[in-house]
Design a protein that fits this description.
Elements (H helix, E strand, L loop, with lengths): L3 H6 L26 H9 L7 E5 L6 H12 L2 E4 L8 H4 L4 E7 L5 H14 L2 E6 L11 H9 L2 E3 L5 H14 L6 H10 L4 H18 L5 H12 L5
Helix pairs in contact: 2-3, 7-8, 7-9, 8-10, 9-10
Length: 234
Amino acid sequence: MMSSEAFRAGPRQMALDLALPESLARDDFLEADCNAEALALVEAWPQWPAPVVALVGPPGAGKSHLGSIWADLSGARRLAARDLAGVQPSDALATGALLLEDAGPRTSEVPLFHLINAAKEEGAFVLMTAREAPVSWGTSLRDLGSRLRALPVARLAEPEDGLLRAVLVKLFADRQMLCDVEVVEYLARRMERSLDAARRLVAALDRETLETGRRLTRPLAAQVLERVMQPTLI
């Protein structure tokens, strides 16, 4: 038997899973205390304290957005750290700047060591993004360890309430969704505190409203929030 809630919601329609392109331009980056240090470092280029620097922060903190801003500013080549072993340092630094994304303890040590040395020798720049500070990676190469300890690091913290609210408003606007202030406040106080979680939550709410034809209300937001934010069972 159909529940009263399902009856009120009406039949569900299939919503097309169309990923909306996210703008990573400078004008779309929302500044806040939690990312001020990292933004200042990016915008200080090329007056950096060292040829190689690192942006460190949790998933969804804005590392990719800042990296994209810097790559556009510097003309940097973009390279995933997992692919570093297959690229010669001279090729990686061909434009004089390299954005090395998602570096960490599993990044190939010898290629990374040669990349850092090449950047210094060639007067090139490298911006590494990582979840953990390079000093904590634990390397087997002593010389690489010393170089990682010397890297300047700019940290991004978890977003504060004001930034979360602003991000939610922007994400809803990007999807042309009408959302009351009450709903934004409700979500910001209860959701996981990351920008990645905000993206997942707004996408889920968009899908729910399209499939059911329901308005975005606080009860609907509560229902979707509980479903999206609950731990995944394996």
